[in-house]
Amino acid sequence: MSNFSTATSIAHNVASGARSAASVVEEHLQRIGQREEEVHAFNLVTSAEARKRAADIDARIARGENVGPLAGVPIALKDNMCTRGVPTTCSSKILEGWKPPYNATVVDKLFAAGAVFVGKTNLDEFAMGSSTENSAFGPTRNPLDTSRVPGGSSGGSAAAVAAGFAAVSLGSDTGGSIRQPAALCGVVGVKPTYGLVSRYGLVAFASSLDQIGPFSHSVADAALLTEVIAGHDPMDSTSIPKPAPSLVSVLGRGVEGMRIGRVADLPEGADADVLARLDAAFVALEKAGATIVDVKLPSLSYALTAYYLIAPAEASSNLARYDGVRYGNRVAANDMNNMYADTRAAGFGDEVKRRIMLGTYALSAGYYDAYYGKALKVRRLISNDFAAAYANADVILTPTSPTVAFPFGAKTDDPLTMYLCDIFTIPTNLAGHPAMSVPFGTGQANMPVGVQILAPTLGEEAMFKVAAVLESAA
Amino acid sequence: MSERLSAADVAKVARMARLNISAADVERYTQQLDGMLDHFADIDNLQLADVQPMTQPFTLVNVLRADVEQPCLDREEVLGAAPAAEQGRFRVPPSGGEDE
């Protein structure tokens, strides 16, 4: 764990009057001032709003009010979550300057919990990428080694926490976009169960896969933030109609008697330094009283294909709304079809166009059955594999990313090389399960390695119990 | 390269996706997409006839609410974010083109 204050300690100190929210926000803004130019975690830093909100929180505490579980906690939001009146760009030229007319549900929940919002973080355009090199506004650099990528697509949110610009942040995870950058930046990252956190106001990429989740320095902070943002929302038709789970209270209960799955047929591709840390994690859990059991997931090796047909297919439909009519930028033309096609050609970057075309092709007449239809069936096989595995295991451990953070440009020549970064994170999204990455030591070049904990639907309690044990053993 | 798709296929897909891209881009995307489809051929030989497709992590049900008036987005704020608006509506060029 880093030396930066955790959200849990900040909230405790601010609520008890030991520290002012104003001093907390100044400390974070100062670090942003010192290193943001080098790291480029943000598309927008909202210093004035942050100071105003911190002053308001201090005033309310002085009046004896309870301001909520995140009292004075500085938080950064991935720039694909709508914030009323504050630009939301998805790191795309097509939305540059757009100010949403409403807040995402998670934003309202964070404000109600007393959080102080410090800025909107950089991402791969429309969350499509694994290195944040696809941002229209330039890449984010890994704060631990600025010659390397922070991962992606939520690279800005991971870097903001790792650099101490915010105590916690939110990202979105469609195929690993929270867990992979968390692993590469040495922080905790959680993708909750599909439907646990409302996506109202999250700009849609692939609607059957997208989920919002936290980045943090500690497992306890991740549990706290997940509790705050989870829960049913009538504004999201995929929201699970159940109350938010209680997660902070399960930390420290240990893993005695738990069954930890080791994937016997893990797809190849992970580096030796990453696998060595995974082995060490199994040893630590066994020492803490858990039993290691072998599980088989024979369809896992097909997950990449299924994902890279399903996610682009859904994206090609979701991104049809960027047509220069209702929001964003427009390229003028004298008829509607040329206006659409010129606007989209000028507004979208290379990777977004590639995925829209791949998705359009996979859904088109004559190819639907061979590509999209088949991918949906493979998705079922993967889900069935998990169901069988969870009959014998409470959670499953895998690497988060096959490698530590890589240098800029290392994977940009061939899109498929970049896609392989997601090989261990994608299966969770296809199944709709929760998973999280916990820093567990370092590998090559002294860069952090993350271990991924996977759990069945609404298995967050078991997942967090294991995470807490790994954190204390790391 | 297997030539699973041609430049003409990609040009057609770009038209369907409303992306006005150059001939050089069509060439480049053809190569890249072809490479991906090659990789995706790993599922070609799976026996999937009896497998139910999975579109969502769980079965979705239609969500409705009571038909009563509720606060909604501010019309001026919404139209203010559009590239062109006129008389309370979004303004677009005519579908058949307009005279210069």
Describe this structure in words.
Chain A is α/β, with parallel strands linked by helices and 474 residues long. Chain A has helices spanning 7-16, 21-39, 47-62, 105-112, 155-162, 179-185, 219-229, 272-287, 303-318, 336-347, 350-363, 369-389, 415-419, 426-431, 460-473, and strands at residues 42-45, 74-78, 116-121, 168-173, 188-191, 211-216, 259-263, 291-295, 395-399, 435-442, 448-454. Chain A has an eleven-stranded mixed sheet, sandwiched between helices. In chain A, helix 2 (21-39) packs antiparallel against helix 3, helix 9 packs across helix 11 (350-363) and helix 9 (303-318) crosses helix 12. The mean pLDDT of chain A is 97. Chain B has a two-stranded antiparallel ribbon with strand order 1-2. In chain B, helix 1 (7-16) packs across helix 2. Chain B starts with 6 loop residues before the first helix and ends in a 10-residue tail after the last strand. The chains are: A alpha/beta (474), B mainly alpha (100). At the A-B interface, helix 9, helix 10, helix 11 and helix 12 of A face helix 1 and helix 2 of B.
Keywords:
A: 474 residues, alpha/beta, eleven-stranded mixed β-sheet, 15 helices, B: mainly alpha
CATH superfamily of the domain at 7-250 in chain A: Amidase signature (AS) domain
Number of strands of chain B: 2
**N-C termini distance of chain B:** 46 Å
Order of helices and strands of chain A: HHEHEHEHEHEEHEHEHHHHEHHEEH
Low-confidence stretches of chain B: none
Largest sheet geometry of chain A: 11 strands, mixed
Give the overall form of chain B: flat
Form type of chain A: globular
CATH overall fold name of the domain at 7-250 in chain A:
Amidase signature (AS) enzymes
N-C termini distance of chain A: 9 Å
Question: What is the count of β-strands of chain A?
Answer: 11
Structural class of chain B: mainly alpha
Helix and strand run of chain B = HHHEE
Largest beta-sheet details of chain B: 2 strands, antiparallel
**What share of residues are in beta strands of chain B?**
under 5%
Q: How much helix is in the residues of chain A?
A: 25-40%
CATH class of the domain at 7-250 in chain A: Alpha Beta
Radius of gyration of chain B, whole Å = 23 Å
The averaged pLDDT of chain B comes out at 92
> How large is the radius of gyration of chain A?
21 Å
Name the CATH architecture of the domain at 7-250 in chain A. Answer: Alpha-Beta Complex
